C-alpha cells in the first residue's frame, strides 16, 4: 500500500509541476506516468509544432522542449520534496525525424544525484522505446527545498 501512496504523490507532483509551465500547456503536454522509475510525458501532434509545412515534420525545438521539460520534471520522481532545479546542461542526439500526425513521448529518469546536481537521461519516441527519435542527457542544479515558485531568494529556507 505504501508504494501506491508514494506513486500517487509522485504523479501528483509531476502533474502540478507541468501545470505551472505555460508553454507546456500551450503545446498540450500531459503526464502519462510518473513513479520511482521515471517520468513519461506526451506531446500531441499539432500544426503548431510542425517545422516543415511541406513534409509535416515536427520542429526539433518542440522535441527539445519536450525533453528538457521531461528531464526537469523527472527530478520529482527522486527528490523527497519539491525543489526548483533549473537546467545546467542538456544534450540531445537526434536519431531520425518524428512521423507527422503522431504524438511524441518523452521518457526521463534520474541516474545520479548529488547535493548540488541531478543527472538525468531519457529518450523521445513515437511507437516504441526501442526506436528512439532522440537520446538526451541533462544536468539540473539543486536549489534546495526552500526555493519555491514565486518566493524571492532572500526568503528561501534551507533545511
UniProtKB/TrEMBL annotation:
Which residues belong to any copy of the Thioesterase domain?
56-129
What are the GO MF terms of this UniProt record?
A: 1,4-dihydroxy-2-naphthoyl-CoA thioesterase activity
**Protein name, per record:** Uncharacterized domain 1-containing protein
Q: What is a single cellular component term in the Gene Ontology annotation?
A: cytosol
Q: Which InterPro entries match?
A: HotDog_dom_sf (IPR029069), PAAI_dom (IPR003736), Thioestr_dom (IPR006683)
Q: Which UniProt keywords apply?
A: Hydrolase
Q: Which organism is it from?
A: Halopseudomonas yangmingensis
Q: Which lineage is the organism of this entry classified under, starting from the top rank?
A: Bacteria, Pseudomonadati, Pseudomonadota, Gammaproteobacteria, Pseudomonadales
